[in-house]
Specification:
The complex is a heterodimer of chains A (about 80) and B (about 230). Chain A has about 80 residues and is an all-alpha fold. Chain A is built from two helices and no strands. Chain B is mainly alpha-helical and about 230 residues long. The longest helix of chain B has about 35 residues. Classes of the chains: A mainly alpha (about 80), B mainly alpha (about 230). At the A-B interface, helix 2 of A face helix 5 and helix 6 of B.
Chain lengths: ~80, ~230
């Protein structure tokens, strides 16, 4: 276990954890806004929840990007060859 | 644990190694094409059960295209509908035991994203000619040419990573939980995976529609595509 592998593992963990913080905050805001909108206009609930799901998947993609970076660091690190 | 970024060759067809995802892709393609031929072989005005289900799917795709692109769905129905149905079936193919969804391999997603990249150029050139399409890169002013060019590449790449990351992470997490906890524990995660798979198929199709609609409306600003941009 050299220092490069050590640094890769640590940075993979950091990238996943920080990549989870931002989308979590964003999803919280999105769900809160959708709840607010449904409470004001219950008849538009179907449209709002459909758009909400698509938006949530878009936001969640940011966390997925960080996961892909972490997996690249762990499994396909070009520096560790 | 096997790296999720590599694929294992199942057998060799001449010099070309054939991976598991390629076999799954061809099986899904064969099932979809065969099913479509079988159902549309005997169409009737009063639809039977299977025919009405397929009509419902086509109708939903049509209404989504009409809503998203503000255009008649006929030229785009085949491409968008095939994209959606293929990705949907591919994501849900993990329901069959032993099958890994082919979209969990980065090559399949790269091929799908490349299709969208080519389709945007194709529909853009068809709407406004080569000059009209190339002019869209210089909008709103020629200073944006490098930015627009880079954007058309990065959005393709982001589509690829989005689909790959979502499906692959589901498979990966199920593998980890299965090795840690045991047999029936990952079932709720698999249910979540089915939801993610359906939503990702929808998003992929919607993004393809949005990109194509953007290329068309910029390449050929006709009278009926009223641009509703408000002047700030």
């Amino acid at each position: 276990m050299n220092w490069l592998a050590f640094a890769s593992i640590i940075s993979a963990a950091i990238s996943v954890s920080f990549g989870a913080v931002g989308p979590a905050l964003g999803e919280g805001r999105a769900v809160a806004a959708a709840m607010d909108a449904i409470a004001r206009q219950p008849e538009a609930a179907a449209t709002i929840s459909r758009t909400l799901f698509v938006g949530l998947a878009m936001i969640e993609t940011m966390a997925i990007y960080c996961l892909v970076i972490a997996l690249l660091l762990l499994f396909a690190n070009p520096l560790l060859k | 644990m096997r790296s999720p970024l590599t694929s294992v060759a199942l057998f060799h067809l001449g010099p070309a190694p054939i991976a598991e995802s390629v076999v799954a892709t061809w099986a899904i393609m064969a099932a979809l094409v065969g099913g479509a031929i079988l159902i549309t072989r005997r169409l009737s005005l009063v639809p039977s059960g299977a025919q009405s289900v397929v009509e419902l799917i086509v109708d939903t795709v049509d209404s989504q295209i009409r809503d998203t692109m503000q255009a008649e769905p006929a030229p785009y129905r085949a491409f968008i509908g095939t994209l959606f149905v293929f990705i949907f079936v591919a994501n849900w193919s993990s329901l069959i035991p032993g099958v890994e969804p082919p979209t969990a391999d980065i090559e399949t997603d790269a091929a799908l994203a490349l299709l969208v990249f080519v389709a945007v150029i194709w529909f853009g050139i068809r709407a406004g000619g080569v000059r009209g399409y190339l002019k869209t890169f210089a909008s709103p002013n020629p200073l944006m040419i490098p930015l627009n060019f880079v954007e058309s590449l990065t959005r393709t790449f982001s589509m690829l990573v989005r689909l790959f990351g979502n499906v692959m992470s589901g498979v990966f997490v199920i593998g980890i939980v299965l090795s840690l906890a045991g047999l029936l524990v990952p079932i709720p995660l698999m249910a979540l995976d089915l939801l993610t798979g359906a939503v990702q198929a929808y998003i992929f199709a919607v993004l393809a529609m949005v990109f194509i609609a953007g290329a068309i409306s910029e390449a050929d600003p006709g009278p009926n595509t009223s641009s509703q941009r408000t002047v700030p």
